[in-house]
Amino acid sequence: MLTGTAPSTQLVRRVNAGALLKAMRGAGIVTGTELMASTGLSRATVISICDELVRLGWLQELENQRGGGDYVKGRPARRFVFDDAAASVIGIDIGANKITAIVADMAGSPLSQVTTSFRTFNVPADERADVLDRIAAEALKKAGVSADSVLAVSVGVAAPVSRDGEVLTVQEFWQSFDVRAMVSERHGWHVLLENDANLAALAERWLGTAKGVDNLVVMLAGDRLGSGIMESGRLLHGQLGGFGELGFLENVDGVGDTYGIGHYAVLCGREALDKPAATTLRELCNGDPASLTAEMVFNAAQAGDPAAGDALDRVSHRMARAIGSISTLVNPELVVIAGGVATSAQALLPAIERQLPDFTFTPPRLQASTLGDGIVSLGAIRHALDYVEEHALDLYPASLPKPAAKPA
Questions:
Q1: Residue segments in the chain with a per-residue pLDDT below the cut of 70
Q2: Which of 45, 186, 286, 341 qualifies as a cystine partner to 41, CB 3.0-4.6 A?
Q3: CB atoms < 10 A from the CB of 262, how many?
Q4: According to the model, what pLDDT value does residue 309 have?
Q5: Within a 13 Å sphere around the CA of 120, how many CA atoms are in the beta-carbon half?
Q6: What local confidence, expressed as pLDDT, does residue 2 receive?
C-alpha cells in the first residue's frame, strides 16, 4: 500500500493518467473494465482519473447504451473515447540546409508537413527565429488548427542534447541561438530539445521497421553519420547527452571520420571519373565531377555501370566497418539506416550484411527506413506526445474553455 507524501501520490496519479491515455489513443470506444484489463489499474483508479480527464477535455464520455433491448443486471458500463482533436503538437527538424515542421493531433496523426530551406550559419539569431516562426505558422494554417491548441513543440538538432534538453557541445549554429527560449518566449509553448538521431530512433520504433524492437540503433547516414540508440526500449543519452555520438569512428581503420553514405558515394564516384575506364557517370554529370550527386552514382550502379558499382562496394565496406564497430559496443538486435539516403541505401544492405561478421561477433539485422526525410520531425511528434502523456493532468487542451480567473 502506498503511504507516501502528497507529492509522491500526485506523481503516481500522473503516471496512471499517462498509462490510461496511452491505452486509449487509437483504441476507439473503451469501457472502464477494458481499461482495467489493459493497464492493470483498479476500477476506482480508472474511473477517478477518467472523470478528471473528461473534465480537462482529454476524454469524452459517451451515453450508455444496451444492445438488443435485453435486460442486463447492474449498471451499464461507462464508455469513454479519447479526443484526438483536444489539442495539437508540433515536431520540428532543423537540418543543415532545411527545416521541416509537422503538426499532429493527439493521436499522433500528421495534419500537415511543411519544409523550407534554412541557412544555419552566418545568419543573425533573430532571423533564424523568424524562419522558425514562419514555418510553424504555415504548418498550423495548413493543418487548420490554432496556435493556442499547441501543448508542446519538440525540436531536433544535430548536436548532443542532455536529458534536460541542454545542448552540450558548442557549435557555430548554437552560439547565439537558444531555440527553446526564443520559441517559448514568442508563443508561450512548452519547447523540448533533442538530438536528431535520437528522434529518428523514436520515430522508427513508433512507426517504422523497428516496431516492437527494444534493442535498436538508428543511423542517420546522409552527409554525416549519427546514431540514436535504444536499449530495453529506453532511449540512451549518457552522462552529458553524448551517447550515440560517433566520433570514435575517426579511430577505426577503414572508416576514419563520420561522413555518411551520401558523402562517400559522391567522393568514390568522383574518384572513378579520374580513371580512364568508361563509365556512364560522365554523361550523367555532363563531364563535370563537381555536378556528380549520390543519386547519380546509385542510378548508374543500378543500371549495371561497373565503375559506379565499384564505388558503392567501397561505401558498403566502410559502412560494414562502422556498423560492426557500434554493434560490438552496444549489441543491438536491429540497425536501421535512415534519413534522406535510406531509399538508396537499400541497395547496399546485402553487401554490408555479407561483411558484417568480419567486424563483429554479434551482427545485427539490417533495415533501411521507410519514413523518408520526415523521420526526425515524426520522432519529434512522438517526443512531444510522450511529454503530453506524462503531464496530462497539468495541461489544458484548447477544446475546453479556459476557466475564469479567480477574483482578487
A1: 1-7, 65-75, 118-125, 169-177, 399-408
A2: 45
A3: 23
A4: 97
A5: 16
A6: 45
Backbone angles phi, psi at 326, to 5 degrees: -70, -30
* Three-class DSSP category at 67: helix
300-336: per-residue pLDDT in tens? Answer: 999 999 999 999 999 999 999 999 999 999 999 999 9
pLDDT tens-digit series, residues 78-111: 899 999 999 999 999 988 778 899 999 999 999 9
Coil/strand/helix, residue 406: coil
> 334-350: buried (b, 16+ CB within 10 Å) or exposed (e) per residue?
bbbbbbbbbbbbbebbe
377 Cβ neighbours under 8 A, 6+ residues apart: 91, 92, 93, 100, 101, 102, 113, 156, 199
Interatomic CA distance for residues 330 and 292, integer angstroms: 36
**In this structure, what C-alpha cell is assigned to residue 327?**
554493434
Q: Tell me the three cell numbers of residue 384.
A: 512531444
Q: How many residues does the chain have?
A: 408
Structure-block grid coordinates of residue 116: 523550407
Right CATH for 212-370 from 3.30.420.40, 3.40.50.720, 3.40.50.2000, 3.10.20.30: 3.30.420.40
State which fold the 88-202+375-394 domain adopts.
Answer: Nucleotidyltransferase; domain 5 (3.30.420)
- pTM (2 d.p.): 0.89
Owner of C-alpha cell 552566418 = 122
294: amino acid identity, one letter:
A
Dig out the grid coordinates for 377 from the structure. Answer: 520531425
- Rounded to 5°, the CA angle 39-371-333 comes to 65
Question: How does strand 216-220 pair with strand 334-338?
Answer: parallel
Task: Give the cell for residue 210.
Answer: 523497428
Q: Please give the Cα distance from 267 to 263 (Å, whole number).
A: 6
CA angle 23-25-26, nearest 5°?
115
